[in-house]
Amino acid sequence: GQNIDQPTEMTATEGAIVQINCTYQTSGFNGLFWYQQHAGEAPTFLSYNVLDGLEEKGRFSSFLSRSKGYSYLLLKELQMKDSASYLCAGMDSNYQLIWGAGTKLIIKP
Amino acid sequence: GAVVSQHPSWVICKSGTSVKIECRSLDFQATTMFWYRQFPKQSLMLMATSNEGSKATYEQGVEKDKFLINHASLTLSTLTVTSAHPEDSSFYICSARDPSAGDTDTQYFGPGTRLTVL
Questions:
Q1: Do B44 and A43 touch (CB under 8 A)?
Q2: Distance CA B110, CA B96 (A)
Q3: Contacts of B51 in chain A (CB under 8 A)
Q4: What value does the mean pLDDT take over residues A19-30?
Q5: Alpha-carbon distance A2 to A91, whole Å?
Q6: Among B10, B28, B7, residue whose Cα is nearest residue B107
Q7: A103-108 and A9-13: which strand pairing?
Q8: Mean per-residue pLDDT, B96-102
Q9: Rounded CA gap, B23 and B94, in Å?
């Protein structure tokens, strides 16, 4: 079956770095997405990886290892506004997104 | 770029009434739009894939006669919740792919519509 696993909740300190891990099992693979979702709002797109390696976008970076079925989202210089849920989603061979349950990130001063 | 809007942002209705939610791609033409539902503290659940000019493809377990989807133009898809009941209360979110973007598989989300059925 298809499955996305990510931690339920993480806590980090303002100004620090946090890594949110995601493991995936999909029928075929057409990429791995990360979205940010603030409470009560729709998700916003953060990153897309389809090749192995690290993609950097400002304070956010995303890594993919296809052989390990593994991705992580790295957030640097954490700010209070980064408190949100971070959703990992894998795209299968039918180009359907398989969603993880999300990781709630709590930032403390 | 790639802005998607939804209307209304929230709606409260009486049980038995129908509610229409609009999803618009503002700066691109979307041949494919998606409708999701999200219950509190749960993951997004895909309800249906909407293709312009053709019938929507519904996910297993989603009643197509209850959740009517119309994708009449390249910038507009509508979801109508017919004869709504309290259990239909949820956060409904649409998304769209921008085929003109280099990253054609990325979905851009609307802000969502919170439906409360009394």
A1: yes
A2: 8
A3: none
A4: 94
A5: 10
A6: B28
A7: parallel
A8: 74
A9: 6
Contact (CB<8Å) A101/B42: yes
* Structure confidence by residue, pLDDT tens digits, B46-87: 999 998 888 899 999 999 999 999 988 889 999 999 999 999
Report the C-alpha gap between A71 and A90 in whole angstroms: 10
Name the token pair of B56: 């929507």
The better pLDDT of the pair A88, A1 is held by: A88
**For testing contact with chain B, the best of A22, A37, A55, A85 (most B CBs within 10 A):** A37
- B103: closest CA among A86, A62, A47? A47
Q: Residue A80 carries which DSSP code? A: G
Is there a contact between B106 and A42 if contact means CB atoms under 8 Å apart? no
Q: How far apart are the first and last CA of chain A?
A: 40
Q: Of residues A63 and A97, which shows the higher confidence score?
A: A63
Q: How many Cβ atoms from other residues are within 10 Å of residue B65's Cβ?
A: 8
Helix H segments across B1-118?
A: none
